[in-house]
Amino acid sequence: MSDYKALYESKRTSAEEVAKQIQSGWLLGMDAGPTQADALMAAISEKIAQTDTKDVKVQLMLDTYAHPFLEEGWKGKMTGMSWFSSNGLRKAVNGGWADVLPAYYRDIPGHILREYEYDAYCVSVSPMDSHGYFSLATSASYSEAMMQKSKRIFVEVNKHQPRALCAPQIHVSEVAAIVENDHLLPTLAETVLDEKSIAIGNLIAEQIPDGACIQLGIGAIPDAVGAALKVKHDLGIHTEMFTSSMVDLIECGAVNNSKKQTHRGKTVTTFAYGSQKIYDFINDNPAIEILPVDYVNDPNVICLNDNVISINAALEVDLFGQVCAESVGTKHMSGSGGQVDYVRGACQSKGGKSFIAFTSTAKDDTISKIKNILTPGAIVTTSKNDVDYIVTEYGIAHLRGRSLAERAKQLIAIAHPNFRDELTFDARKRGIMV
Ligand code: COA
């Protein structure tokens, strides 16, 4: 059938009608951030609340909507399974009514293909084009793998979803149901850069040569680095998450992707999230490629570009250089995401460097983020064998290839001055040669 408009109309329905199909024991899948299907999740939650349907599971990452099933009281009825948490998922995991799927981001499509069968994949897409395709808009991530393993695909068409030209598409013939749901996409609160973040941003910017290919992670510090890079020239972007500060860098001319060895002239990412400015930038833009994460985050792909510089954040680091970026002790905060993918990719790249950066203290200077040993329960995101540079507002420590004594010395030197004596005492007590 080539009358795609007629096909569209024949599949168009309401979220409530779709929800009627959901049965006990179903596994549903969604992808990261703004492509999550919020109207479908609300309707499905409502149906489950009103009936005896139970044991429905939803895999998702980076929840950006207040999905009802992430609230307390849904245990056993509808359970969130997190590949990476923020907001509601973080609360639900810590509360004991959602679960975590540990993974390197690049491996998620592989886990999906090998381990799971989905009863439905739910996704918010841009309006259909004249050839019958919906663009998956802001997230390639693991969508193609999930669609391949799903018995049915339910789409929510949102006129505010940007049409990403170089990104996965779904044809109207492939979808089981279409629900229209127009609303502005979710955004992140604008980062307020304080003195410490600006100092860290400037320290790292000094290490980034013109022509480098950058990845900036999630959080205030990567944003501060982005702000400090506006004076650079000929930068490229090959990243996991496309952020507001990257749009600024492209618009001010610091990024033109002209020196990349792969995807020259193009910005490469696997998903985008943050501000309306980002979504407007993606729309109909052939210069941004939103590609599956098993490709984008593969260290062997990342390192095809020279001078890859990756910048990510952390919550604490011990004196060996073990990096925790996903929990505060036993309190779950996020996930591994692509941190290790980019640490490895940058270190494999000719001239590449990986920076893990954070302010030296938390909670008004009462807690040092550089620790003798990690807080019990802290999750090691980047191992001591992978770590490269650690940065605080007091300087840069280069750990890769260095001994434990050298690491401890360098890390103590960039700890907050209030904690340096205690860290030195602890290090000596355990026999580290500082
Ligand atoms: N001890 C106690 N509390 C700590 C702490 C520590 N060592 N370090 C941070 N905190 C607290 C902060 O005070 C803050 O508390 P608040 O919410 O009450 O203000 C909270 O934990 C979050 O810390 P913050 O430093 O503001 O986090 P962020 O938003 O900059 O994000 C990460 C930092 C590490 C959580 C984030 O980068 C992440 O999820 N990384 C893992 C994945 C990754 O790196 N992917 C890479 C590509 S996107």
Which short descriptors sum up this protein?
434 residues; alpha/beta; Glutaconate Coenzyme A-transferase; eight-stranded parallel sheet; binds coenzyme A
Shape: globular
Low-confidence stretches: none
Structural class: alpha/beta
Q: How many E-type strands?
A: 27
Q: Can you say what the CATH homologous superfamily of the largest domain is?
A: Acetyl-CoA hydrolase/transferase C-terminal domain
The CATH class of the largest domain is: Alpha Beta
What is Rg?
A: 22 Å
**In order across it, which strands form the biggest sheet?**
1-10-8-6-2-3-4-5
CATH architecture of the largest domain: 3-Layer(aba) Sandwich
Average of per-residue pLDDT values: 97
Tell me about the largest β-sheet: 8 strands, parallel
Query: According to CATH, what is the topology of the largest domain?
Result: Glutaconate Coenzyme A-transferase
Q: How many DSSP helices?
A: 15
Approximately how much beta-strand content do the residues carry? Answer: 15-25%
Helix content: 25-40%
Instruction: Give the cofactors and ligands.
Output: coenzyme A
Cα(first) to Cα(last) distance is 74 Å
Q: What is the domain total for the residues? A: 2
